[in-house]
């Protein structure tokens, strides 16, 4: 097993030059590479390498498209595991595991396909312990799913697939940043425990695996993919999209076309030479929520203009009501660049410790999310309009997200008939959100496109 020091050395930002990285990216883009791209790779003043505009790029203009270098299941606990690991179709709830006993969920067609052959042999060699369970119960009981998939062994599949990429594709994975995080090591240890013959003593293999898992956790996206009526989230490595550094209100937006193709467009005008940025968080989250998410998952503190403004461009997405008796003012964080700021009331100027306001924010978050999960659309509208204003300022991001949830539910899932009044509320919520995006300077971001296109 690799020592921690050795592992960390492997994880350290690699020193592939931007030129070599650019060559590997060109090979990866293949026919999707434009003859004279409007972007280039260079060392970034923000962090590591970044993507930069080679000329003025107008808002809305296409910057690049790229296919996934590798995809696999996200294998999130609670998500349907009976999804084919190759074509992502929903499988029956019984007997959906590979007939060749690799214990991966796969449809009959894909089980025999070249796409599955190598990984199937790989998993068989490692001898999944799940086989013991299925062998003990050779006769499945009707109505009772006897097969189960271990999310930990399923999650390692994307990393295994990296071993079967071409040498140039492997070089590209090796050229990507891999953050050093103890949790990634745990991910591998837990996956190893799912197999009888996981090669934990093969040092070269384990070193490579540690780095690949680091690359995936640092760079991979969760990309929605729909097959028929079944929607699933794929874990995809899109190297060029991943090289873009983060900004909380970015100048570019990206979306995934059915899990396999990333499309990146300018959200605002981008001057020649400027770094092209994307966001790793939700754009409507408050400063603190984004800060905690970035620290925990991407291991950095963002220092962008939005993070340094405690009014959040005048959107007050963090705002909570003052805790002082009789005061109806709003309270916002005082300091930026910290995840534990003091909070001050804009009316009475009282200052509150972060712990107190964090408990209050959690209360608002849980109360609103519980409603989202349990209420019909009309009930949710009533809750947002009548009850939320009693405990949550209208600018708070949780309330804004609740409005967004109502918009999605009214436009996406089936089409129950809504009353004129409900439609008016939906349109008002959309206007509220568009006004916030405008204040943030989000330009033609993906969210704006979605909420304006979905409501016609
Ligand atoms: C997907 S990589 C981005 C590409 C990376 N710059 C490179 O050279 O490959 C994500 C990592 O880049 C760094 N990063 C991205 N945006 C950043 C920002 N705004 N501030 C500080 N670090 C950032 C963090 O280390 C983060 O974990």
Automatic annotation (TrEMBL):
Record PROSITE patterns: SET
Keywords for this protein: Methyltransferase, S-adenosyl-L-methionine, Transferase
InterPro entries: SET_dom, SET_dom_sf, SET_SmydA-8
One MF term in the entry's GO annotations: N-methyltransferase activity
Residue intervals of the SET domain: 37-281
Pfam families membership: SET
GO biological process, one term: methylation
PANTHER family registered for this protein in UniProt: SET AND MYND DOMAIN CONTAINING, ARTHROPOD-SPECIFIC, MEMBER 4, ISOFORM A, SET AND MYND DOMAIN CONTAINING, ARTHROPOD-SPECIFIC, MEMBER 9, ISOFORM A-RELATED
Protein name: SET domain-containing protein SmydA-8-like
Species of the source: Drosophila lebanonensis
Upper classification of the organism: Eukaryota, Metazoa, Ecdysozoa, Arthropoda, Hexapoda
Gene encoding the protein: LOC115627821
């Amino acid at each position: 097993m690799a020592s921690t020091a050795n592992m960390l050395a492997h994880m350290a930002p690699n020193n592939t030059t931007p030129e070599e990285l650019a060559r590997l990216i060109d090979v990866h883009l293949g026919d999707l590479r434009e003859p004279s791209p409007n972007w280039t790779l260079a060392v970034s003043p923000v962090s590591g390498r970044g993507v930069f505009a080679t000329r003025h790029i107008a808002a809305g203009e296409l910057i690049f498209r790229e296919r996934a270098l590798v995809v696999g299941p996200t294998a999130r606990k609670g998500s349907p595991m009976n999804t084919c690991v190759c074509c992502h179709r929903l499988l029956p709830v019984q007997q959906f595991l590979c007939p060749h006993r690799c214990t991966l969920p796969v449809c009959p067609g894909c089980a025999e396909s070249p796409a599955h052959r190598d990984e199937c042999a790989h998993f068989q060699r490692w001898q999944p312990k799940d086989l013991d369970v299925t062998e003990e119960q050779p006769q499945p009981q009707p109505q009772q799913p006897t097969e189960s998939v271990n999310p930990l062994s399923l999650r390692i599949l994307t990393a295994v697939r990296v071993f079967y990429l071409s040498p140039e594709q492997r070089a590209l994975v090796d050229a990507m940043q891999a953050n050093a995080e103890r949790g990634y090591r745990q991910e591998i240890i837990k996956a190893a425990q799912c197999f009888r013959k996981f090669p934990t003593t093969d040092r070269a293999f384990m070193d490579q695996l540690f780095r690949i898992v680091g690359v995936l956790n640092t760079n991979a996206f969760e990309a929605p993919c729909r097959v028929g009526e079944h929607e699933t989230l794929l874990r995809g490595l899109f190297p060029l999209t991943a090289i873009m550094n983060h900004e909380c209100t970015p100048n570019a937006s990206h979306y995934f076309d059915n899990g396999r193709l990333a499309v990146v467009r300018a959200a605002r005008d981008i001057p020649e030479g400027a770094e092209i940025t994307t966001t790793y968080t939700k754009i409507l989250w408050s400063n603190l929520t984004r800060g905690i998410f970035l620290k925990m998952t991407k291991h950095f503190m963002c220092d962008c203009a939005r993070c340094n403004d405690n009014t959040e461009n005048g959107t007050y997405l963090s705002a909570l009501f003052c805790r002082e008796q009789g005061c109806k003012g709003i309270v916002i964080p005082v300091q930026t660049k910290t995840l534990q700021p003091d909070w001050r009331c804009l009316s009475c100027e009282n200052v509150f410790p972060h712990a107190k306001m964090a408990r209050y924010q959690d209360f608002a978050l849980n109360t609103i999310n519980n409603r989202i999960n349990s209420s019909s659309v009309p009930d949710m509208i009533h809750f947002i309009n009548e009850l939320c204003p009693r405990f949550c300022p209208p600018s708070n991001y949780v309330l804004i997200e609740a409005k967004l949830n109502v918009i999605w539910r009214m436009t996406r899932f089936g089409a129950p008939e809504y009353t004129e009044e409900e439609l008016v509320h939906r349109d008002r919520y959309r206007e509220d959100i568009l006004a916030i995006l405008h204040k943030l300077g989000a330009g033609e971001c993906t969210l704006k496109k979605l909420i304006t296109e979905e409501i016609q």
